[in-house]
Specification:
alpha/beta; globular; two-stranded antiparallel ribbon; 6 helices; 242 residues; seven-stranded mixed sheet; single chain
């Protein structure tokens, strides 16, 4: 675990694939894609409506992997600077390679470590996004050939630790927007851990591109004055498993 930005020089020892958003190429290898390659465009669609073109100061991508979501949002001017953290070293290497290759290292900070423990106390964010593991169960047949770190959050420990620790890194009117799977969770799955951490649920929204399979969870500090304008995209009155 590192409590300071990683500065290791990245050598491209394997052929990276890449995807480009607005001239910014994001590099990765296939086993680092936990869905963010597709979900990034969904996030961009969401933010076109969500904040009416607002630009956030500093954004953090939790469980970033190679940072498809974070880099695509940086390339789309949704944030000014980007902070990334992940416990998987090869993914951090890929994210660092992206920053150096695109000459944006001055706008990107990377930390290697377990959850929020990698972050120094000084890090504060206006926006937090993330595509964390979506399931608490290990026996997911469709993920039989996928590394468990991609999809498994055993006993929701990662989520619990995230909500317990993120408040001190969130500006008073900062916003958390997490991408979740409706087959694995719903609002009441996370409400107790959110409220116990001095946070509150501001709302939720179905995915823009994937319908009712995925949903967004919006969380703010319990002392926040932020008034979130939700996109008019279906009913928000109920979200249940199945």
């Amino acid at each position: 675990m590192m409590s300071h930005p990683t500065t290791r020089t990245v050598e491209s020892l394997r052929p990276y694939q890449s995807k480009t958003w607005n001239g910014l190429s994001v590099y990765y290898i296939e086993n680092q894609n936990g869905g963010g390659l597709d979900y990034a465009d969904d996030y961009l669609d969401l933010f076109k409506d969500l904040e009416s073109g607002r630009r956030f100061g500093r954004m953090f991508e939790w469980c970033s992997g190679p940072a498809f979501i974070g880099y695509s949002m940086l390339a789309s001017n949704i944030c000014e600077t980007l902070c990334l953290a992940d416990c998987y070293r090869p993914a951090i290497d890929a994210a660092q390679y992206t920053a150096s290759t695109n000459n944006i290292s001055d706008r990107v900070t990377l930390y290697e470590g377990d959850g929020l423990l990698a972050l120094p106390e000084s890090e504060k964010f206006d926006l937090v996004v993330g595509n964390p593991p979506h399931f608490v169960e290990r026996n997911m047949l469709e993920y039989a050939n996928v590394e468990s770190r991609i999809y498994l959050d055993d006993k929701w420990l990662l989520h619990r630790q995230f909500f317990a620790g993120i408040r001190k890194h969130l500006e008073r009117d900062g916003l958390i927007v997490l991408f979740e799977n409706s087959r694995g969770s719903h609002i009441e799955t996370f409400r107790p851990m959110i409220e116990a951490a001095g946070l509150k649920i501001s709302g939720w929204q179905w995915s823009c591109r994937f319908g009712h399979l995925f949903w967004y969870l919006f969380v703010v500090r319990n002392d926040s004055k932020l008034q979130l304008r939700m996109p008019a995209r279906g009913s928000h009155s109920e979200l249940r498993l199945g």
